[in-house]
Structures are given as C-alpha cells and as structure tokens.
Amino acid sequence: xxxxxxxxxxxxxxxxxxxxxxxxxxxxxxxxxxxxxxxxxxxxxxxxxxxxxxxxxxxxxxxxxxxxxxxxxxxxxxxxxxxxxxxxxxxxxxxxxxxxxxxxxxxxxxxxxxxxxxxxxxxxxxxxxxxxxxxxxxxxxxxxxx
Length: 146
Hints:
This protein has 146 residues and is an alpha+beta fold. It has helices spanning 7-25, 30-34, 59-72, 132-138; strands spanning 36-43, 55-57, 74-85, 91-101, 107-119, 122-129.
C-alpha cells in the first residue's frame, strides 16, 4: 500500500536529500561539523564491541570525538554512496564504502549503512552500522578504541 508524501513534504525531502548528499561528500571537513545540529545524537550500535562509546549526545560531545577519530584516519573517503529517502521527508538511509589508512599505515576498506535524520536543516541523528567481526580485529590499529 503506497502512501505518497505531499507536495510540501516532497520539497522538504528534496532539500534534505541535498543536505544528506553533501554531508556524505565532505566527511571530516569543518563544513561537515557545521552541518551537525547542536542536539545531535550519534549512535554506534557496535561501538562497545570495539571499546568505544555507543551513544554520544550533543555537538559538544560529538565533534571532539569525531575529530579524534578522524585525526587517526588518514585519507578517509566515502565513495559509492547510495542514499534512500523514506516516507518521512527527514529520514534517510545510506549505504557507502569507505577507505582509510591507520596511523600504522594499514589500509582498510569497509561497507557501512547509516541512518540520518534532519532537523532544522542540520543532521540531528546519525546511526552507523558496520561488520563488527571485521572492525573488531582492525580496530587494534586505532588508539581511540584502546
């Protein structure tokens, strides 16, 4: 059963789709951090498996965490990003690949799934999934997870 969104919701969804697409393109830049809502919630369901936090709340907590992680992730790049809107014009899912080189020089490639929610023109919620079996072994190269 289809429940199409209204014309107004379509406009919101189109603007939010552009925001989400830009967010995925500019990972790790200052503009990226500026796109986060002050009340951002960052959720890594598999984070505890790697000795990391599962949930971070608020830009004051999220940005320093991400900066520390990105400082160790040389040449982080997202590519082959597929973005799917939902019936809620503020909710999107992405499947993407990332490459990263660790401080010890190892090079990794991963596939991720995330859910992003937009509120007031900013990313207000981000949940990221990855293969915990693979990431747990690889995380030994990242000091953030020790």
